[in-house]
């Protein structure tokens, strides 16, 4: 988990009620949204924190590992190399698996999401991307680490981003939400846009199906 103070409502990765299986959280102390949502993050500092937390979570009984920021896709391979348990850093991992679709991405920051982030998870570097507005309610809460959340305003911004993505890329018939704070708006996006929408919760439900049996009784 990034070191954040913003509200984490049901659907957000940081709310345990978002899951129908048990989760364990550990905070990346001192590493916040501005550290992760960056074109050129401080890779050694972030990687050291991720590796340390991976070991602690494994010791606590975790069978799989994720992160609370889709931009940490950049560390997928590095983290998997040192983690004692399987790693799924970002919903962007879903992009190359949706082979029957033309996939677009809604991201927290189109300015900062680069081809390197996509390449790190095997996603095509020309994947269509649309960002949330830089000066909007979403940015004020989740990028600036604010304490207030205007749910209706963020929902409107997400739908507008989705419409812009489809308008610019008419062939897109599925959307992946890079940002782990966007799943609460998934149903509204599906209804407004008429396309399939996938998020980090879908990624982690699949991970749990594959790994959860390790902790089932008997």
Task: List the defining traits of the structure above.
single chain; 218 residues; alpha/beta; Rossmann fold; 2 domains; 4-stranded parallel β-sheet; 8 helices; 7% strand; globular
What do you see in this structure?
Helix 6 crosses helix 7. Strand 1, helix 4 and strand 2 form a beta-alpha-beta unit. The protein has 8 helices and 4 strands. It is an alpha/beta fold and 218 residues long. The two termini are 31 Å apart. The chain has 2 domains: 88 residues, no CATH class; 109 residues, Rossmann fold, CATH 3.40.50.1860. The model has no long low-confidence stretch (mean pLDDT 95). The chain has a 4-stranded parallel beta sheet.
The 3D shape can be described as: globular
Rg is 16 Å
CATH class of the largest domain: Alpha Beta
User: Which strand order does the major sheet show?
Assistant: 2-1-3-4
Largest sheet: 4 strands, parallel
Q: Might you state the CATH topology name of the largest domain? A: Rossmann fold
Poorly predicted regions are none
| Relative strand content | 5-15%
| Number of individual domains | 2
Known CATH architecture of the largest domain: 3-Layer(aba) Sandwich
Alpha plus pi helix count: 8
N-to-C CA distance: 31 Å
User: Helix content range of the residues, please?
Assistant: 25-40%
The tally of beta strands, per DSSP, is: 4
Helical/strand content category: alpha/beta
């Amino acid at each position: 988990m990034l070191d954040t103070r913003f509200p984490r409502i049901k659907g957000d990765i940081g709310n345990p009620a978002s899951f129908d299986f048990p989760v364990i959280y550990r905070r990346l102390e001192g590493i916040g949204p501005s550290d992760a949502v960056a074109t050129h993050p401080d890779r050694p500092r972030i990687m050291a924190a991720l590796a340390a937390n991976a070991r602690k979570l494994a010791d606590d009984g975790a069978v799989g590992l994720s992160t609370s920021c889709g931009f940490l896709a950049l560390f997928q391979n590095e983290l998997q190399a040192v983690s004692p348990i399987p790693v799924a850093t970002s919903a962007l991992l879903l992009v190359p698996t949706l082979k029957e679709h033309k996939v677009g991405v809604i991201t927290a920051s189109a300015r900062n999401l680069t081809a390197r982030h996509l390449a790190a998870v095997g996603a095509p570097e020309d994947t269509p991307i649309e960002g949330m507005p830089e000066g909007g309610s979403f940015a004020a809460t989740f990028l600036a680490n604010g304490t207030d959340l205007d749910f209706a305003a963020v929902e409107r911004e997400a739908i507008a981003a989705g419409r812009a993505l489809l308008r610019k890329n008419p062939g897109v018939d599925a959307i992946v939400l890079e940002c782990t704070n966007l799943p609460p708006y998934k149903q509204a996006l599906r209804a407004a846009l008429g396309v399939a929408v996938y998020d980090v919760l879908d990624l982690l439900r699949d991970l749990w199906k594959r790994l959860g049996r390790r902790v089932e009784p008997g």
